[in-house]
Structures are given as C-alpha cells and as structure tokens.
Design a protein that fits this description.
It is a single chain. With 246 residues, the chain is mostly helical. It has one domain. The protein has eight helices and five strands, in the order H-E-E-H-H-E-H-E-H-E-H-H-H. It has a three-stranded mixed sheet with strand order 3-5-4. The chain has a two-stranded antiparallel ribbon with strand order 1-2. A hairpin with a 6-residue loop joins strand 1 and strand 2. The two termini are 25 Å apart.
Length: 246
C-alpha cells in the first residue's frame, strides 16, 4: 500500500514537472540574455540556463524551504494549528463545504489563492459570503487567502500549497494575478508552443518566476514524502522488533 501511494505521488509530481519543463525548454532560445527589472526578480536568461533567480531570491528560497520543512513537520498532525499559524500572518482562512466546486468555476482550486480582481473576485466573494458568513465582504477584489473544504486535507497537497503560501508572504516573485492565470494555462491541455509568440518578454520572464516557485514547492513535497514514508517504515520495523540501520 505504501509503495502504491509513493508511486502515485511520484507520478503526479512527474506529470506537473513535465508540463512545466516543456514550457521552459520551448522558449529558452527566444529569451536569451534578456533582463527583466520590474518589481519582480532581476533575471538573466541564457541558452544554457533558462531560469536563474537573482542572489537574493535564491537565498530567500533556500531559507523558505528550511522554514517550511520545520513548520510542516511540527504541525503536520495538527491541521487546525497549521491554519491558525497561517491566520496569524494576516492571511484569511476559509473552511467551507463543497467549496472546491465553486473554485473550479473561476479556474482556481482549493488551497492557497492569490489576490483576485474583477468578476472572478466578485463571484467568489458572493459565494464565500454565503458559505462562510462574516469572513469576507462582497466586492471586486479579494486578499490572499487559504480556502479549503471543511474536511481532512491530503497531507501532500497541503504541503505543496503551504510552501507556495510561505513563498508568497516572503515576497518571492511569480505571484501576480496575470502570471498566475498564464501559468495555469500552460499546464492545461489547450496549451500550444505557438502561444509563446503571443507573449511579451515580461510575460515569459514572469512565468519563469512562477515555474521556479512551483518546482520548489514540488521538490518540498518530494522531500516531505520521503521523510514521512521513511518514518513510517522505521516505526513499523521497531514495532515488529526489527533492527534499524543508523
């Protein structure tokens, strides 16, 4: 059973990575040696290295990964405490029944949701104000928030979303609304390499920041899964009176 779970998890992760890396390789030559110097990271792209975060982003990303692992391992069996921790950083947490069906209608999925604007925000605030009264005002903008069903969450999915949230509150680039929409689009089956021609250099480089963030979150999930599976195997061996290799 454990082997099947691990195999399934790796299959899902590999699927997302293949989608992401397919985009990265397709436009590597087009974006050679361009510099992006907006509010986001200053990034240089070469034919040999399609994505390179600046020194500060790299350092922050490493620190976030260490912090995320420490926090998640501590609170993994205390989901309510995990959500309280998220709320303590001024992020709205909403738990409501069937909320995943509502999120699908606006192209989102449960977990960490970036600030929205326009009709999507208006629609979501109307529904959430009904499902979770006094949590959110109806309007054409929303804050960053964690939206989940009021049921136990899949630990690996929660780890992925938690890592994204931690990266966002630490101001790593790749989390503006337009980039988020574009990123979801390249993961869809409708994505075609010809669509790159319709993107500006700014759009492409912003997408590369988003890709970097998701690859970091995916790697975090893999690291956590290895540790959890390893701990279970060790625990079972101890229960069965078997020795452990240290």
């Amino acid at each position: 059973m454990k082997q099947n779970s691990s195999f399934f998890l790796n299959g899902v992760i590999d699927f997302f990575k293949s989608k992401i890396l397919r985009f990265t390789s397709l436009d590597s030559e087009k974006t050679s040696m361009h510099k992006f110097s907006k509010k986001k990271s200053r990034t240089f792209l070469t034919a040999n290295e399609t994505l390179q975060l600046n020194t500060q982003s790299k350092s922050t990303a490493k620190e976030i990964n260490i912090e995320a692992k420490s926090l998640f391992k501590e609170l993994i069996n205390k989901p309510e405490e995990l959500f309280k921790y998220i709320e303590s950083h001024k992020t709205l947490v909403i738990r409501a029944p069937h909320v995943e069906k509502i999120l699908i209608l606006i192209g989102e999925s449960e977990g960490f949701i970036l600030p929205l604007s326009g009709f999507r925000a208006f629609f979501l605030t109307i529904i959430l104000s009904l499902l979770a009264p006094n949590k959110l005002k109806v309007g054409f903008s929303t804050p960053a928030m964690f939206v989940m069903r009021n049921k136990p969450a899949n630990v690996y999915y929660l780890a992925h979303q938690f890592h994204h949230w931690l990266s966002y509150i630490n101001d790593l680039p790749g989390y503006d609304e337009e980039t988020s929409i574009n990123f979801k689009y390249i993961l869809s089956s409708d994505y075609n390499s010809n669509n790159i021609d319709m993107m500006s250099i700014d759009d492409i480089l912003s997408l590369k920041d988003a890709i970097a963030r998701d690859l970091e979150a995916i790697q975090f999930v893999k690291d956590i899964s290895r540790e959890l599976i390893g701990q279970k195997i060790s625990s079972n061996r101890l229960k069965n009176g078997e020795s452990l290799n240290i």
